[in-house]
Amino acid sequence: MEYVNELYKIGASTEDIIILAKLLKPFAPHLASEILEKEEADDKWPEYNEAYLVSDTVQLIVQVNGKVRAKLEINSDDLKDQEKIKELALSQENVQKYLNGEPKKIIIPKGAKLINIVA
User: What sequence ranges are listed for the domain Methionyl/Valyl/Leucyl/Isoleucyl-tRNA synthetase anticodon-binding (predicted)?
Assistant: First the structure.
C-alpha cells in the first residue's frame, strides 16, 4: 500500500505498474495477470544468478562447556583446515577467559559450523 501511495503522489509510469503487478502476483495472481496482460508485459519472475548465493565467509560458533563464548567469521576455504580453526578459536579472548589452562577436548564435526571445547 505504501508503494501504491507513492505511485499516486509521483505519477506511475508503465514500468512502475509492471513491477507492482509482479510483486502482487503471489498474493493476487488473477488481478496481477490481468494487469500484466493489459500492459502487454511478460509474466516471468526475474532470474537469479547462483554465483551470488555463495558466501565467501562462514560464521563459526565457539562453545566452551556447552555455552556460546565466541563467534568467528572465517573464509569458507579455511573450513577444511582444522588446525587453523582450533588456533583461531583458542585465540579468542572470551574463550581464554573460560578455559582453565589447556582444554581437555576440542570437538569440530566435519562440515559443521560449531566448535565445542571441553575445559
Answer: 19-78
- Would you list the DSSP string of the chain? -HHHHHHHHH---HHHHHHHHHHHTTT-HHHHHHHHHHTT---PPPP--GGGGS-SEEEEEEEETTEEEEEEEEEGGGGG-HHHHHHHHHT-HHHHHH--SS-SEEE--TT-SEEEEE-
Task: Classify domain 53-118 by CATH architecture.
Answer: Roll (3.10)
| Dihedral sign (CA 95, 98, 101, 102) | negative
pTM over 0.90: no
Sequence-separated (6 or more) residues with CB below 8 Å from residue 46: none
Model confidence over 44-86: pLDDT tens digits? Answer: 877 889 988 888 888 999 999 999 999 999 888 888 888 888 8
Q: Which residues contact 57 (CB under 8 A, 6 or more apart)?
A: 73, 74, 75, 76
